[in-house]
Amino acid sequence: MSVRNSGKCTRVPGTTPPQLRELRDALGMFATGVTIVTARPETSGPVGMTVNSFSSLSLDPPLVLWGVSKRARSFEFFVSALHWAVHVLSVEQEPLARRFATAGLDKFAGLPLAAGLGGVPLLDGCCARFECRAAAAHDAGDHVILVGAVERFRRDDGAALVFRGGKFAITVDSTQGGWQFDGAARQDNM
User: Could you count the other beta carbons within 10 Å of the beta carbon of residue 32?
Assistant: First the structure.
């Protein structure tokens, strides 16, 4: 497999650290939504992390997926959890996205939480939330892809938080009735 970069073709297998940075920067050009995934494993208190690898997978049956790094401190908790919830963040929740992306913090301190399926902590103020039963786990390089069967969900109106090129951004409704990307919303990196 090869990746085109600035008119040059860079080979992916056996890449060097500078090439990995270039690959990461190229992948970062794909705008993603920003989510927080939470779980309450049987062997610990609640865990949560900011995730942008979330995706819908199937409507029938309703399945979603996301990837967890094998280096994440909470890796074992997520791969062993029977239930987890995906929270699609609103633009107002950028500080929460940063909080859950920071290692070592008590991410849930002071947050109003509800208990979802399997006791999973649920966050308020999200654009959408999916409560899932763990359905499958697939090894994928330095990550594991977790597939969840959606058992309960909710949707609220509001602008979703977006991440592209190492920056948070928002989508705005344009006057032509479509959606535009406003990458100028925040200029600092996550």
Answer: 16
